Amino acid sequence: MEFYLKVCFTVLCLFQWNYAIDTQYMYESCNSNYVLETSLQLETSKSLTYPFQMNCTYTITVPSAKTILVVISRFEVEEKVTGICTDYLNIYDGGDNKASLLNTSPLCGSSVTGNFTSTGSSLTFDFKSDETAVYRGFGLLVTAIENAPCTSAQFSCNNGLCIDTSLKCDGYNQCGDSSDEINCQENAASSTAGIDNTPLIIGVIVGLVVVGGLIGAIILHVYKKNQWKKFLHQHLEDPDVWNPSPSYPVTRKYYRNGNYNTLNIDVDNVPHIHQYESMDASADSVR
Ligand SMILES: [Ca+2]
């Protein structure tokens, strides 16, 4: 078990994979509440595009001492029609859509960027779509934050925010200024420096040897088969040439199977046949 854990950890570090983050979908969890401890990704729906006539709210609440940071990581919603958003997102600064709005106007189109921060411990997202033109929707990174000074269990962002320390170098910008994703390659390199990679190296070498052996066996088999065909062709073309190589014996068994019928050879009077009789097994394996 320890061997496999080391292999998996090494592979993860080598390829710098993002750790999985909790993802919630507004359409599939329409009009629900979520208690958030650290961070989640809020998506419009599980489908490739959000549905027509979607009308959902989603409320997120964090512990009372904390507030909420929303980072827009992706936003693809129908553009305005005659200056009005027909599909749009509103972010309310409270536990329902009666609270004050954090955004100054409904959010739509594909150029929405920036961060939003709650004043309290709850935020409510409200998304509506009409009956025309659906798009991929949005992805929002929602994170529980506190202001500095940070505790030992928190990471101190460059912008003065504190986030859970587990969010450092997880591939997502929970600080809002990306300071939690800085210098991650160096950290990953140093963290792998103390790992004993011997099992991984041995595994790779054994794998290469096995694969190389298989390839060699296939090449040898094809080579022998071709040589055997070449030899037979030569003797069928010219019956006077009768000088079989010990590597490709022609035996009594081979003659009596009818392979040389056209040559009218007296099997019992061909000395080479007796010479190679003991190699019947070898000839059979080649064929
Ligand atoms: Ca992060």
TrEMBL record:
Residues 1-20 form the signal peptide. This is CUB domain-containing protein. It comes from the Eukaryota. InterPro entries: CUB_dom, LDL_receptor-like_sf, LDLR_class-A_CS, LDrepeatLR_classA_rpt, LRAD2/Mig-13-like, Sperma_CUB_dom_sf. The lineage of its organism: Eukaryota, Metazoa, Spiralia, Lophotrochozoa, Mollusca. It comes from Patella caerulea. The chain crosses the membrane at residues 200-223. PANTHER family: CUB DOMAIN-CONTAINING PROTEIN, LOW-DENSITY LIPOPROTEIN RECEPTOR CLASS A DOMAIN-CONTAINING PROTEIN 2. It holds the Pfam family Ldl_recept_a. Disulfide bonds join C150-C162, C157-C175, C169-C184. Keywords: Disulfide bond, Glycoprotein, Membrane, Signal, Transmembrane, Transmembrane helix.
